[in-house]
Amino acid sequence: MFFKDIAGHTRIKDNLLNTIKQKRISHAWIFTGPEGNGKLALAVAYAQYLSCENKGEKDSCGECISCRKYQKLIHPDLHFVYPVIKTKNFSKPISDNFAEIWRNFILKSSYHSFDNWLEDLETENQQAGIFAQESGEIIRKLNFKPYESEYKVMIIWLPEKMNISASNKLLKMIEEPPPKTIFILVSEDTEKIITTILSRVQMVKIPKLNKESMIESIKNKYDLSDDKIMEIVRISGGNFLKVEELVNNTEQNINSENYIWFTDLMRAAYGVKITELIKLTNEISQCGRELQKSFIEYSLQMLRENFILNINPENSNKIVFLTNKENDFSEKFNQFIHKDNIIEIVKEFTEAHNHIVRNGYSKLVFLDLALKTARLIKVKPQ
Ligand SMILES: [Zn+2]
């Protein structure tokens, strides 16, 4: 993980980098702050930088052997502890029992929440926690010398979920740390951590993300209008997980808009209703280029699915991916997309896409596309 992938926190990142550059590395840290601010990713980015063999000014190199292992979270000197659940296979669970789910969870985003973790674990109301047996595991791992790096790093996510006996054993280890070992605790609720631990760790308070860094980060990541970005920033309240959720919803909204355009276009084309076709293509061409492209891409997908429905009605439920309402429309529509017009129609939509990408005059591009569709859709299968 890289510092650059985490929004904002410029000063905190600089301070953390300086502790490594100036060799002021604490042997036990606690990063605290609210959900969705990137603090777990910061802990991993810090550990990766510490271990990187070719450190840059502001970030790890991403190319050395250590970085490559870090990017898959398989470096032998990087250890994680996190809340887990009891399952049929693991009656005394430890973190490593869930390592693969954990790696996927961490790597899919720079922002993490306990609720999302429980979802990935597929809990059925079991209590998730860091149990007593975990401390034995921590001691065992930290007894070894570092394999490949100067330091071993143990990141403990949500130490507030640790049971009391595990907490006490952790305290002992922080008091008398094994050599070349760094603990990074990542917490959302320090009040639930025993004070003796808190008094022995260096605290880094990581606040919620500020407006400017959120706007910048959303702009870099997603293709949205300024208004939409402002709306998302407002609603998310400094929690980047909410941003990701809202953007996904926006994508769903775009798809339902595309659905309306697509079905309107096909109905008007079939009825050769020229006035409606003009009205519709005017509406589409008034939108931004990204939306126009997404409409064409959506149409190509719908055409493909309808063609498959047409030629393979028996197995369609396995190979066709449609929402319920798309399915309702396609049940009747698929008969018009067949082997004698699919190639031509796809060609026309693909060409329109190319024109839009190359800044073609969209009003003409879409009207032309609509009229060609009206002709092609009337082609009868031989
Ligand atoms: Zn590196």
Gyration radius over CA: 27 Å
Could you say which overall geometry the principal axes of the C-alpha atoms support? elongated
Fraction in beta strands: 5-15%
Give the domain tally: 2
Summed over residues and divided by their number, the pLDDT gives a mean of: 92
Can you summarize the main beta sheet? 5 strands, parallel
Level-2 CATH architecture of the largest domain: 3-Layer(aba) Sandwich
CATH-defined topology of the largest domain: Rossmann fold
Strand order of the largest sheet: 2-3-4-1-5
Tell me the distance between the termini. Answer: 57 Å
Ligands in the model, by name, code or SMILES, are:
zinc ion
Number of strands: 5
As a percent range, the share of helical residues equals 40-55%
Count every helix, treating DSSP H or I runs of 4 or more residues as helices: 17
CATH superfamily of the largest domain: P-loop containing nucleotide triphosphate hydrolases
- Text of the CATH class of the largest domain: Alpha Beta
Instruction: List low-confidence stretches.
Output: none
Give helix and strand order, one letter per element, not per position: HEHHEHHHEHEHEHHHHHHHHH
In terms of structural class, how would the helical and strand content be classed?
alpha/beta
